[in-house]
Amino acid sequence: MTTVIAFILMFGLLVFVHEWGHLIFAKRAGMLAREFAIGFGPKVFSFTKNETLYTIRLIPAGGYVRVAGEDPEIIDLKPGHHIGLEFDESGLVNKIVVNNKSRHPDARIVEVEHADLDHTLTINGYEPGEEEKLSFNVHPEAMFVMDEKETQIAPYDRQFASKPKRKRAMQLFAGPMMNFVLALILFTILGFVQGIPSDEARFGEIQDNSPASEAGFRAGDEVIQAEGQQVESWEDFTKIVQEHPEETMTVTLTRNGTTEEVEVTPRSVKAQEREIGQVGVTRAFEDSFAKKATFGFTQTYEWSTLILTNLGKLITGQFSIDMLSGPVGIYDATDRVVQTGLTNFVMWTAVLSVNLGIVNLMPIPALDGGRLLFIGVELIRGKPVDPQKEGAITFFGFALLLLLMIVVTWNDIQRLFL
């Protein structure tokens, strides 16, 4: 149950921060943000505030911010269409009733001759059976009512496509950017709470009933040699240990100014489809204010570099697609991380936030990076990509991502039960 709660909190935080970035910069640009959603599928909870519908949906596989102009939201009013109009105190149309007009007895029935709800905000037409031409001005925040569902109209200047390229690009980039900001904050908090991991192969905590505890390792011991190999950093030591699962190793370390040799047999654990060794120790931490103040930046940079390197290996075929994890694999990893303590869980959340930011910036249709690529093409061509072509490419990209998610999730399930 602890893992379930931790996973929900972590997932909710990562998605919320990402989508909140999109929402804030959409509103700053003057776009009409119709919906802010956590999850997909049927609504579990919703409320409306400041023009935006906030929803929590059933399937925890992401989220979205729906901005006016990105999807067909209201039908076009065609000549001959009979509609009902309601007015505010100033005489502007504040409600356009498309059907079920009998439920709106105060609405004025009009046969449409021409309607423009994007630019001029006018509706021209006639009362049924009359010849006098009528013209009505529409309030820029008027409601379009169809099947008793109200949708706020979006004049062109409130739509995504109407904004300058830099504002559209910033609105798309803001989501991944906020994931990097979240990671930086979490890493900084960790730095001030627990200190800065030492670069030396010096032990911090020794886990109970671990190979390290059985071998007599103590906090503060510093490894200088392992299996005949010189050890100069913590990474050197962990690499040697991982290469010797269930094999007795000789470790040379310094303790209180003296040098000792200790034998230890790393426990075998499964990681990324292979067996690696672990002895059950954590690295020591330093108490340096300067390093604490910069820890968030250095860790965000280092993890970004590592993730980009691994993505490059995946693209070039050096890594198999089987090494990817989806929600099921992340849940399983979260389960193991939660058992090791709160600080490791916070670190895991920060790493996933960096990963989410980078993945979303990849130039793949349907992701933020793919949409940024279209704006780049528009900048080079001097005109936007045809909306129908962009929509078709985005749909194709979404289908590929969905297929990849199915494959990755299937692999995750197999790893759990095989």
Automatic annotation (TrEMBL):
Which SUPFAM superfamilies does the record cross-reference, listed alphabetically? PDZ domain-like
Q: Which GO terms describe its biological process?
A: proteolysis
Transmembrane stretches, start-end: 6-25, 172-193, 391-410
**Keyword annotations of the record:** Hydrolase, Membrane, Metal-binding, Metalloprotease, Protease, Transmembrane, Transmembrane helix, Zinc
Q: Which InterPro entries does this one have?
A: PDZ, PDZ_6, PDZ_sf, Pept_M50_Zn, Peptidase_M50
Pfam families hit by this protein: PDZ_6 (PF17820), Peptidase_M50 (PF02163)
A GO MF term: peptidase activity
Keyword hit for Protease: yes
- Its topology with respect to the membrane? Multi-pass membrane protein
* Location of the protein in the cell: Membrane
Q: Which CDD domains match?
A: cpPDZ_EcRseP-like, S2P-M50_PDZ_RseP-like
The enzyme class is hydrolase
PDZ domain location, by residue? Answer: 183-257
Which EC numbers characterise this protein's activity in its record? 3.4.24.-
Required co-factors: Zn(2+)
Entry similarity comment: Belongs to the peptidase M50B family.
Q: What is this protein called?
A: Zinc metalloprotease
Source taxonomy: Bacteria, Bacillati, Bacillota, Bacilli, Bacillales
